[in-house]
Design a protein that fits this description.
- With 712 residues, this protein is an alpha+beta fold.
- The protein folds into 5 domains: 17-108, no CATH class; 121-151; 162-272 and 607-700, no CATH class; 375-483, no CATH class; 515-599.
- It contains 22 helices and 22 strands.
- Strands 6, 7, 8, 9, 10, 11, 12, 13, 14 and 15 form a 10-stranded mixed sheet that branches. It has a 4-stranded antiparallel sheet with strand order 1-2-3-4, covered by helices on one side. A 4-stranded mixed sheet has the order 5-20-21-22.
- The radius of gyration is 34 Å and the shape is globular.
Length: 712
């Protein structure tokens, strides 16, 4: 008797498809794992990304991205046919060296405990290797360090071999050269900046290489940046020994000594080369983004008695004496580059100079984002000529024309910062453009983006030119909204935590720019305005005056009509003469040729560059550590305050022959304390080292025993 099937057979499972959890699946075509011809990733059943696994670079980037999206690492390793350790290596390399280090195969530095475990596993697997032999472990450590040094991105110190100078400081002058037992310090939290800067930016070697024994000044500035101390004069309230052991310089000096250290560092006049190396290293190591660069000018006011050039105060809407700091940030708010310019500064020139300055370090030119100060068709056309992609607001938009646009035109909609936007774009032709050799002007076409903030019911326009970059209308709109309007403004937040206007050690020299706008042109403009106003009155008077005649019918020569006509003719001739004289006047003149003008003084920027270098270093380090904290702490609105709570913790510090250990007092809330401990483990795992090879360790715990704590 034939058996009847009650149910159909279960369909055969697709062997090329792997579930990675968290709603992620990956399907391979033309093979499996890293030998497949192509792989498609789906997120909750929707297409997410497609790559070629045979391309090792694409495969690495996808694996790191999937790990960040909480994919199961064991299943991910099985899908690609690799080990879990390989995935951990990819993730660690990306965190320590950025995308460039991941693609070039840099080897991350691991902690001493992990190296010891790996050595023991190798010894147990191969009996020929002696087990638990100190000599074998020492050789293994030396080999690991040599391989790590060979794979590290070398610092390009182009200023007189500064690297050798840093490594040959006297032993007693090197940071953390002193050995001591546990000592209490109120400033232990500031220590968390050092592992990040030392490991990420090789910061100690950089500053010691350029300043030698005067590097102590920059460590004091780091303490000021970490604790928001607004001037060197306020350092008199800081405990000298406690701050000294935290910074590794034994004891900071009194106010007079601090000024001696400062003038010793500023007198070397090496900040130009220092900043060049620092900014270049950031870009090469992937520590700052190169996709979008946001440039803005910030007034540095001057209130002294000397005659200096004027910048523009946006809040007061008037020129005031001072300089302009042109700061460039990436999309995450990290400082990429900055330059202090005399007087108002030139944003347009700065944007073009940025592209030329870092053209060799960026594969693709970054998209320059700036506000309405960079307006002008000639400037936009020049950016197109220099192949510099840009996004900006359009100046002087006609509100009536915007209001007349139908709502249906704003087809692309998205939400940004809890505000709903609608956008669309059209072409804009620039007719006033740069001239070619044939003296014919070339028309350049750029994008005009119409933006409708539906939440506040306001409309405006933006301009963009993206060259060959694949940026949609929404991408361009998000770029300009990410630093202005209701969005986070990195410059304002930076000013709240660091004194942007503080300038230690003012020094004034004779300015090279002694030219001013020709005052004679202003006088001529005043005269022309007066003549035009007088002519308007005469024209009205002439229209009302009637012609008078004598008894014989001839026109009266002394009538109001004739006198008004003669006055008009005289003033028209005078107006034409004034306009002709204005054409022959030079636009700018040197003040030395004028008897009643003072010469301009220029503020020396050496001390300001020193302080701003440390401020930007602390800010970029803070950005990095906050990103780490965001993975450990789920309260987005409190994560920044948590970081500053950690940096203000009291604690204890101990320095031995091989390690510098800082123990922070635990935070009271369990949730905060857990995040604090995780951050400290992360900083310790960086395995940052001082110039003399001491490892920097950060931990959280109770006070050491009273017998081992030294009193100041």
């Amino acid at each position: 008797m034939k058996q009847i099937k009650l149910f159909e057979d279960t369909p055969e499972k697709n062997k090329n498809c792997f579930c990675l959890d968290s709603g992620l699946t990956i399907e391979f075509f033309g093979g499996l794992g890293k030998k497949a011809r192509r792989a498609v990733v789906f997120q909750r059943g929707q297409f997410f990304k497609e790559i070629k696994p045979l391309d090792k670079a694409e495969r690495k980037l996808l694996i790191v991205e999937l790990v960040k999206m909480d994919a199961n690492q064991t299943k991910l390793a099985a899908a690609f046919g690799i080990s879990r350790m390989t995935i951990n290596t990819y993730v660690t390399t990306k965190e320590q060296f950025g995308i460039e280090g991941l693609l070039r195969g840099y080897r991350p530095e691991v902690s001493k405990d992990i190296r010891k475990q790996r050595a023991l596993h190798r010894e147990q697997a191969d009996p020929a290797i002696p087990v638990n032999k100190a000599k074998a472990l020492a050789e293994l450590r030396a080999q690991t360090r040599a391989e790590q040094a060979a794979r590290q991105l070398p610092l390009d110190f182009s200023f007189g071999g500064q690297e050798d100078k840093a490594l040959h400081l006297p032993t007693e002058e090197q940071p953390f050269s002193e050995e001591h037992d546990w000592e209490p310090t109120r400033y232990a939290g500031v220590f968390v900046y050092l592992p990040t800067l030392v490991k990420g930016w090789d910061w100690l070697r950089l500053v010691a290489g350029y300043f030698g024994e005067a590097y102590k000044t920059l460590l004091v500035f780091l303490l000021m940046a970490g604790l928001n101390i607004r001037s060197i004069e306020q350092m008199k309230h800081v405990r000298a020994r406690e701050a000294g052991v935290t910074l590794g310089i034994r004891r900071i000096g009194c106010r007079q000594k601090l000024w001696e250290w400062f003038y010793d560092a500023a007198g070397k006049e090496v900040t130009g080369a220092l900043l060049q190396d620092y900014f270049r290293y950031q870009i090469r190591a992937g520590l700052v983004g190169c996709g979008q660069w946001f440039t803005d000018g910030h007034l540095l006011p001057y209130t002294g008695k000397y005659h200096v050039r004027c910048g523009y105060n946006t809040q007061r809407r008037m020129p005031v004496p001072g300089r302009t700091n042109m700061v460039t940030c990436d999309s995450s708010g990290r400082v990429v580059d900055f330059e202090i310019q005399e007087g108002k500064g030139d944003l347009r020139e700065r944007i073009v100079a940025l592209k030329k300055k870092w053209a060799d370090e960026t594969a693709l030119p970054p998209v320059m984002v700036f506000d309405r100060e960079g307006r002008g068709d000639e400037f936009f056309a020049n950016l197109v000529k220099e192949t510099i992609p840009f996004v900006t607001w359009e100046n002087r938009v006609d509100a009536k024309k915007l209001a007349a646009i139908r709502d249906s035109e704003f087809a692309t909609e998205f939400t940004y910062n809890d505000k709903h936007y609608g956008v669309f774009e059209e072409e804009k032709r620039l007719r006033s453009t740069f001239e070619q050799e044939s003296n014919k002007k070339t028309v350049v076409t750029i994008k005009r983006i119409y933006v409708w903030n539906k939440t506040s019911n306001r409309r405006t326009c933006g301009l963009a030119w993206t060259a060959s970059l694949a940026m949609s209308t929404e991408d361009c709109t998000r770029a300009i909204l990410s630093r202005w309007g209701a969005s986070e403004n990195a410059f304002k937040h930076l000013n709240n935590r660091h004194p942007l206007h503080y300038h230690p050690g003012f020094k004034l020299v004779e300015s090279e720019r002694q030219d001013i706008a020709n005052p004679e042109i202003k006088k001529k403009d005043t005269l022309i305005s007066q003549l035009k106003a007088g002519l308007d009155k005469l024209y009205k008077k002439l229209a009302k005056a009637k012609q008078a005649v004598n008894a014989d019918g001839a026109l009266r020569q002394n009538s109001t009509h004739e006198r008004t006509r003669n006055a008009i003719a005289e003033q028209e001739a005078e107006l034409a003469t004034a306009r002709e004289e204005k054409k022959h006047l030079p636009e700018r003149v040197d003040v030395s040729s004028l008897g009643d003008y003072k010469s301009f003084k220029k503020i020396d920027d050496e001390g300001k560059y020193l302080f701003d270098f440390v401020t930007s270093s602390a800010w970029n380090g803070r950005k990095q550590m906050v990103e780490w904290l965001q993975q450990m702490y789920d309260d987005e609105n409190d994560v920044v305050d948590l970081f500053y709570a950690i940096t203000h913790c009291h604690g204890w510090i101990k320095s031995t022959r091989s390690e510098v250990t800082v123990r922070l007092e635990p935070l009271q809330q369990p949730k905060r304390r857990q995040a604090q401990e995780q951050l400290c483990r992360k900083l310790t795992h960086l395995a940052a080292r001082t110039l003399n090879g001491k490892r920097l360790v950060v931990e959280v715990g109770n006070p050491p025993s009273t017998e081992t704590v030294q009193k100041n």
